[in-house]
């Protein structure tokens, strides 16, 4: 962050952002800000009641009031204090019980945005950095959540000044009638002079010293080196050290020292950045303390002079000093909160900018056809594609057509563009040039959700979550139990299903259930296939679905493949050529281009890329899985 960035945001814009942050907190938990304000008001009422009590009792003793009268006054004040204290306890109890709900809802808002934004954003490392930063800014010391606390603190500071001034002013107006310096001190002008001196001191502190401190702090927080090292430390803690799935490798390969050194390096790098900032911070910190000392000296000095010149009674001396101190605390509090609002506005703006990231992808409005005959035809027309920020094309002039019911294998070396082609087909990305059509209509014109519903995909890195097996297969908390079980058995997991303690309701992994079961990579892939079957989409894409399976399990999947897929269109992506022979047609890609199409026998006879790849893998097929497909 720099001064220029701060200058660009006007006071009006800051106020607007602060108001939006308050509304966001209220959206997460109604009454969130009001509770902070009420707590501060009630606490102040309690505090000032004690100050008045001290003054009343001291004056009463000095004037010779009876003990009974003093006890009655004391009882009234103490009763009021007790009532205020009890009210604060109830409000804070509600605050404690609602904090988890508030914090969770804020996180959900940010995560919901992340899950629903265009996939092109999700794969962007800078976007991931922004997400991590904004997640911190929700609960950072100057983040979204802190705005409501600052409102409470600001209200408290303002009330300190108002109440303190209201109680002090009567004694200021009623001066002692002295001449010279004593008359000036005891006059309203003396009081206003003291207030003006404090105001100047606080103004200098806020405008210069606090501002410089703010920019130093923001400079560290905005430093890419700080962000990278903080993310690294967080990643080691949450994805390595705390993840029990990493525990085996850590122990078997004795990686403790490696991980601790990497974590220590991240910590040291963060420490160096803060140390550099603190070396500059010291002089501004000294300036802040100097301004505080001046403010305190002026106020205490004025109170002492008032007492010396006898314009207030013995009891009022104590109350005057205490009230003046609280006025000072109020002025300091407003100064600090204004600086905090400035910092919070910067952080909250980053959060709102993230929440308002527009989707680049046109979502379309045309509904997809509800065809009883499932007659869908997809076509790639002169499609070129390169990833955002890259100058290299991953796909080059791709022309491809297939219809529902066809089963096509897409093969080629790693990195030739097979998975990218699937991402474009599923509209995770849009072509850089050319178009993809469904029944002759550019797929960008279709309603996005309806179009996505046409596809069921098993990616080579498909994920399962620590939910029940049924919820993973149905991708929902509501499901047809019989259908879920049928899909799991059709995917080749009958024996494993029968061994689960709670059947389809058994949780996977142990993150959320201590009785959760661990499943192998091959079993996870079969469950992903079961999820594809359950969705029932007319178009199925299997991107290396058997990479984690042994040859026998792989053969079982392919043997039942037609039963699994039925009359739906299927694209099967693989580098194992033997596993593609059951498909109607094989499409061969190389360096982002389609170089061959045809049946297995046709491509072998052609002697092209496919034939060369087949020959290179022939011995492997003969010794292992290939024998299963003869």
Summarize the structure.
The chain is α/β, with parallel strands linked by helices and 630 residues long.
Structure description:
The protein has helices at residues 3-8, 11-28, 32-63, 67-116, 119-122, 125-139, 144-173, 180-186, 188-221, 224-241, 247-252, 256-308, 314-355, 418-425, 448-452, 469-474, 481-490, 494-499, 521-535, 551-559, 561-565, 600-606, 609-623, and strands at residues 377-385, 395-403, 407-411, 433-438, 441-442, 455-458, 539-543, 569-574, 585-590, 593-598. It is of the alpha/beta class and 630 residues long. It is elongated. 30% of the residues are buried. Strand 9 (585-590) and strand 10 form a beta hairpin. The protein is built from 23 helices and ten strands. Residues 1-7 and 623-630 have low confidence and may be disordered. Helices cover 64% and strands 9% of the residues. Helix 2 crosses helix 7 (144-173) and helix 7 (144-173) runs antiparallel to helix 13 (314-355). It has a six-stranded mixed β-sheet with strand order 6-7-8-3-9-10, sandwiched between helices. It has a four-stranded antiparallel β-sheet with strand order 2-1-4-5, with helices on one face.
């Amino acid at each position: 962050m720099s001064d220029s960035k701060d200058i660009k945001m006007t006071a009006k814009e800051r106020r607007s952002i602060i108001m939006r942050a308050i509304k966001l907190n209220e959206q997460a938990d109604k009454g969130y800000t009001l509770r902070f304000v009420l707590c501060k008001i009630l606490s102040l009422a309690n505090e000032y009641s004690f100050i008045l009590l001290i003054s009343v009792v001291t004056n009463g003793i000095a004037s010779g009031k009876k003990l009974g009268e003093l006890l009655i006054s004391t009882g009234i004040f103490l009763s009021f204090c007790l009532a205020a204290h009890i009210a604060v306890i109830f409000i804070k109890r509600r605050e404690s019980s609602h904090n988890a709900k508030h914090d969770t809802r804020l996180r959900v808002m940010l995560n919901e945005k992340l899950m629903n934004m265009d996939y092109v954003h999700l794969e962007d490392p800078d976007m991931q950095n922004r997400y991590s930063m904004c997640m911190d800014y929700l609960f950072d010391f100057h983040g979204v959540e802190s705005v409501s606390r600052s409102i409470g603190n600001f209200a408290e500071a303002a009330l300190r000044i108002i109440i303190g001034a209201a109680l002090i002013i009567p004694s200021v107006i009623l001066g002692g009638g002295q001449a010279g310096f004593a008359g000036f001190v005891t006059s309203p002008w003396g009081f206003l002079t003291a207030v003006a001196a404090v105001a100047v001191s606080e103004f200098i502190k806020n405008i210069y010293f606090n501002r410089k401190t703010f920019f130093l702090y923001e400079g560290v927080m905005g430093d890419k080196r700080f962000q990278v090292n903080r993310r690294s430390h967080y990643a080691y803690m949450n994805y390595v050290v705390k993840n029990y799935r990493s525990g085996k490798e850590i122990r078997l390969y004795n990686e403790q020292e490696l991980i601790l050194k990497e974590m220590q390096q991240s910590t040291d790098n963060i420490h160096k950045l803060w140390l550099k900032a603190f070396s500059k911070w010291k002089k501004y910190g000294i300036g802040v303390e100097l301004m505080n000392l001046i403010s305190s000296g002026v106020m205490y000095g004025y109170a002492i002079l008032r007492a010396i010149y006898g314009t207030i009674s013995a009891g009022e001396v104590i109350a005057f000093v205490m009230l003046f101190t609280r006025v000072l605390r109020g002025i300091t509090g407003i100064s600090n909160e204004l600086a905090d609002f400035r910092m919070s506005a910067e952080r909250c703006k980053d959060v709102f900018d993230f929440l308002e990231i527009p989707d680049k992808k046109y979502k379309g409005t045309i509904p997809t056809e509800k065809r009883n005959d499932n007659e869908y035809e997809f076509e790639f027309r002169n499609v070129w594609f390169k990833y955002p920020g890259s100058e290299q094309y991953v796909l080059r002039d791709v022309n491809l057509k297939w219809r529902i019911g066809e089963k096509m294998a897409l093969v080629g070396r790693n990195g030739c563009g097979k998975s990218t082609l699937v991402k474009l087909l599923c509209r995770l990305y849009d072509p850089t040039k050319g178009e993809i059509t469904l029944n002759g209509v550019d797929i960008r014109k279709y309603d996005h959700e309806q179009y996505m519903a046409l596809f069921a995909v098993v990616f080579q890195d498909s994920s399962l979550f620590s939910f029940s097996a049924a919820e993973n297969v149905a991708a929902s908390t509501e499901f047809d139990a019989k259908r879920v079980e049928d899909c799991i058995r059709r995917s080749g997991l009958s024996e494993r299903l029968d061994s689960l303690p709670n059947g389809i309701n058994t949780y996977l992994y142990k993150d959320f259930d201590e009785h959760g079961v661990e499943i192998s990579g091959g079993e996870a892939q079969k469950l992903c296939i079961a999820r594809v079957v359950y969705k029932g989409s007319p178009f199925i894409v299997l991107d290396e679905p058997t990479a984690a399976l042994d040859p026998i399990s792989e053969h079982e999947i392919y043997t039942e493949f037609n039963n699994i897929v039925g009359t739906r269109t299927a694209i099967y992506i693989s580098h194992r050529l033997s596993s593609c022979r059951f498909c109607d047609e094989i499409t061969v890609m190389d360096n982002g281009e389609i170089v061959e199409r045809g049946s297995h026998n046709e491509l072998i006879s052609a002697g092209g890329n496919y034939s060369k790849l087949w020959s290179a893998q022939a011995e492997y097929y003969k010794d292992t899985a290939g024998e299963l497909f003869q």
